Amino acid sequence: MKKASALFLMILIAVSCRVSYQFNGASIDYNIIKTIDIRDFQNQAAMVYPPLTQVFNEKLKDHYTKNTKLTFTDAAPDLELEGEIIRYDLVSQTPKDGQWDSETRLTLAVRIRFKNNKQPNEDREETISAYRDFSSSKLLTDVQDQLIDELSEEIVDQIFNATLSKW
Prior knowledge:
single chain, Double Stranded RNA Binding Domain, alpha/beta, 3 helices, elongated, 6 strands
């Protein structure tokens, strides 16, 4: 009898408890939200590096493709994401204690506008930025591609979390 009761209790717990984890952080009700339109972000920063726009836009669209089941469309989408690159610049940093040379900070910032046509209370507009420091003894041209890749990934992740995660 004890074994039957224990087995029944385990089955009852297994049936009544449902745990759902989403490791990408997205909170999407696919019964309501099915489509998205991500418009290309144009570079409006004072300093222009031509590959930046393409790298950023590809990473942004790839991230949404890999981490959601949303379909891309520009005809009456459920979600709309647009914006522009507003900052891409270098700032010299003073040496910190114990350092012999100074560092240079590369900063990337984008302004986003997110519109949820199904749930307008989730609309948002904000600026998201990231930076990386590198040794001033290096030329920007030597580290630029790697830094753009890292900065774009970080900002894309922040945009994804800002638009589709409900923490």
